Amino acid sequence: MEAAQLQEYDEWIASHLDELITQYAGKVIAIHEGKITLVGDSEVEVYRVVREKGLEPMPLVFRVPREEDFQSILSEDRR
Amino acid sequence: MIIFRYKPFRGRLAPIITLGVRVGTAWYPLEVYVDSGAVYTVLHARIAEAIGFDYRTGNRTYLQVGDGSFIPVYLHDLEIQVGTERFSAQVGFSEKLGVGFNLLGRIGVFDAFRICFDESQGILTFERRR
């Protein structure tokens, strides 16, 4: 896939992660052409709509982490 | 050299990057947490289910996780794209991944790249080993 597309998604997440956690924690979102185009409860649901709409390039489908997801992975005691 | 910004959240920083994974003929952009403590790259099985990939056909192995328990992981050789670089790595899928993120682990990745976690600069760099 286009490296520029990956970079665009990466920069978008870097710029919006905090507000995503505030608004969509635990939800699955699709980011396409610089904005959130779909919000759902599962990857199955969101990818199904992506296919139905024939979105190109492939959107970034992302389950927005909850704050506790960061706490679990950033814990110092991961053994 | 491929450079990523750490992702800021609640005043902290996390080494999360966007990469591409090819499944069949399609490329999927995904977010992964770069985890030098993880042996394998492991994706949530719900992603495979959502894109119609029968991940259970892979070689099953068990990985130990933070609480000491073992989780089943199904391994596949998949193509990954980081920035402009493409390479193959064993990628696992698991229904039991106990963290909210997909993990980018060492096998096939940390041996293909020199990866620098520069937290003071807030950047993560990937340099392809030649």
Can you walk through the features of this model?
The complex is a heterodimer of chains A (79) and B (130). By secondary structure, chain A is an alpha+beta fold. Chain A has one domain (3-66). Helix content of chain A is 51%, strand content 19%. The model of chain A is unreliable at 75-79 (pLDDT under 50). Chain B is mainly beta. Chain B has one domain: Beta Barrel (Cathepsin D, subunit A, domain 1), CATH 2.40.70. In chain B, 5% of the residues lie in helices and 58% in strands. In chain B, the strands form three sheets. In chain B, strands 4, 5, 6, 7, 8, 9 and 10 form a seven-stranded mixed β-sheet that branches. In chain B, strands 1-12-11 form a three-stranded antiparallel β-sheet, with no helix packed on it. In chain B, strands 2-3 form a two-stranded antiparallel ribbon. In chain B, a hairpin with a 2-residue loop joins β2 (7-9) and β3 (12-14). Chain B is globular, with a radius of gyration of 14 Å. The relative contact order of chain B is 0.27. Classes of the chains: A alpha+beta (79), B mainly beta (130). Chain A binds chain B through residues 1, 3, 5-7, 9-11, 13-14, 17-18, 21, 42-44, 46-48, 58-63, 65-70, 72-75, 77-79, and chain B through 4-10, 12, 14, 16-20, 26-31, 33, 35, 37, 44, 46-47, 49-51, 66, 68, 81, 83-84, 98-101.
In summary, what is this structure?
Chain A is of the alpha+beta class and 79 residues long. Chain A contains three helices and three strands.
